[in-house]
Amino acid sequence: MSTTEPDALLGPADIRELAAALGVRPTKQRGQNFVIDANTVRRIVRTAEVRPEDVVVEIGPGLGSLTLALLEAADRVVAVEIDDVLAGALPATVAARLPGRADRFALVHSDAMLVTELPGPAPTALVANLPYNVAVPVLLTMLERFPSIERTLVMVQAEVADRLAAKPGNKVYGVPSVKAAWYADVKRAGSIGRTVFWPAPNVDSGLVSLVRRTEPIRTTASRTEVFAVVDAAFAQRRKTLRAALAGWAGSAAAAETALVAAGVSPQARGEALTVEEFAAIAENKPAVNKPEDDKPEDDKTVGNETSGSEA
Asked: Which of 186, 280, 169 is nearest to 229 (CA)?
């Protein structure tokens, strides 16, 4: 694969010049923090293990820093950009800086949450600097809609990276952890400092690697059914599962029956369960909800806690 354009990648001066020419001012509303360090985007591509045969989808390419590095390494890159000005400018940037690869690039001008199909061959990899405010829902949506994506590497807020990669028993293990594990083997893949961005964010960033499961979770329950249990368990994460799943099952007694059938202690809490155990609970949901003869039992000693921003 040709990488004969040594100055193709964007540096700090290039980024600011492009932004000024377009009248672009990064907005907090869309979580825009542009990567201005060429070594960082090279590192991301290297960590993502992008292969010459890969079709890579990128979410939120911005001014094109990562896009250009991906184009140098992959067979094709499809970028999804919601911003009108950035979407309009990116094809010209690619054509100017990597003319030999421009025919390998496609742009989808859309909100990533609304994209249901992509042009060209099915994507094999997802690599993106995800906007902090929508990182988890965008990631999970892409993994659901495009099962051909085998490998993913996303840069997200460090706290979000920790939550995505957390394992059962970890204090930050929650809804994103379980839902990501439904699709893939998830792990932290590095940290990124603040100085490589413009404007510099107020938080550090982290890389998260997701390698799709070669075999899906073995369960007769659907993804929707399993995720409903996950959402219920963490909506009141300080409660025992017997109490937290009472609404889902119809009563605390019905929840206990489902938990016992799944081989899970009714006194356990969601943060201790694997995705496989959540699937087992979903399989054993009572077919018909029982009457309200058994009110949900609060765990008086620890109180309630909602899942907050867990998506």
From this structure: 280
How, if at all, do strands 184-192 and 125-129 pair? unpaired
Half-sphere exposure of 127 (CA within 13 A, CB side): 30
Please check whether residue 215 is in contact with residue 238, taking contact to mean a CB–CB distance below 8 angstroms.
no
pTM, entire model: 0.86
Q: Is-contact 73 153, C-beta < 8 A?
A: no
Phi first, then psi, for residue 156 (nearest 5°) are -140, 175
In eight-state DSSP terms, residue 1 is -
Confidence grade of residue 287 (pLDDT, cut at 50, 70, 90): confident
Alpha helices in 149-285, H assignment, sequence order: 158-165, 175-183, 223-235, 241-244, 246-249, 252-262, 275-283
Confirm if 179 and 144 have CB atoms less than 8 A apart.
no
Indicate whether 304 pLDDT > 60.
no
Distance of CA 13 to the CA centre of its chain: 30
Q: Quote the DSSP letter at residue 103.
A: G
Q: What confidence tier does 202 reach under pLDDT thresholds 50, 70, 90?
A: confident
Q: Alpha-carbon distance 61 to 44, whole Å?
A: 14
> Which two tokens mark 31?
């979580």
Task: Check if the beta carbon of residue 102 is closer than 8 Å to that of residue 111.
Answer: no
Q: What is the pLDDT of residues 127-143, one digit of tens each?
A: 999 987 899 999 999 99
CA 132 to chain centre: 10
